Amino acid sequence: MDRYLNPKEKERYPQWLESQEERRAKIEETKRNREILSNAPPEQELAEKEPEEAEISQDVKYEYHLGDKVYIGASEYEILSVDDERVMLYDYDMPLFNKEFSRTEFDRKVRENPMNEHLIVKEEPAEERNETEEVQTNMAVCRLKIIER
Questions:
Q1: In the chain, where are the structural domains located?
Q2: Per-residue model confidence (pLDDT) at position 20
Q3: Scanning 76, 90, 117, 147, which has the fewest C-beta atoms within 10 Å of its C-beta?
Q4: Does the pTM of the predicted model rise above 0.85?
Q5: What's the CATH number for 60-119?
Q6: How far is the C-alpha of 104 from the C-alpha of 113, rounded, in Å?
Q7: If you ran DSSP here, which 8-state letter would residue 76 be given?
Q8: What value, to the nearest 5°, has the Cα angle with vertex 85 and ends 82 and 87?
């Protein structure tokens, strides 16, 4: 230590060392406090949130189309093919390699990520469904009449 410090630095070294130890102790205490706060949520909030989240994730239906963007983890993918058995995804980060998941695993991973909310099917009220069905049948009838002429 003598060869690295000049005489003035040698005099101040004990005070500097003490201040560094105090600083380290404060930092460790704040780390411990943050860890305690992040690991132990209040029991009431936890009990209230869990049933709501479980209900929401089970009741929600997702609809997939070719070309839809899907987020699994932090990665963004595009759906290349979807069937009852498997799903093929195009990886934007590594375009030469495609990802393949079983349908059940894919559904589970899609539900885990809140960035996939754009794929959730929103239920229409019964009146709107009836109106859209009526419009579609009218359009089909009109097409048939046009074709017959």
A1: 1-38, 60-119
A2: 94
A3: 147
A4: no
A5: 2.30.30
A6: 15
A7: E
A8: 35
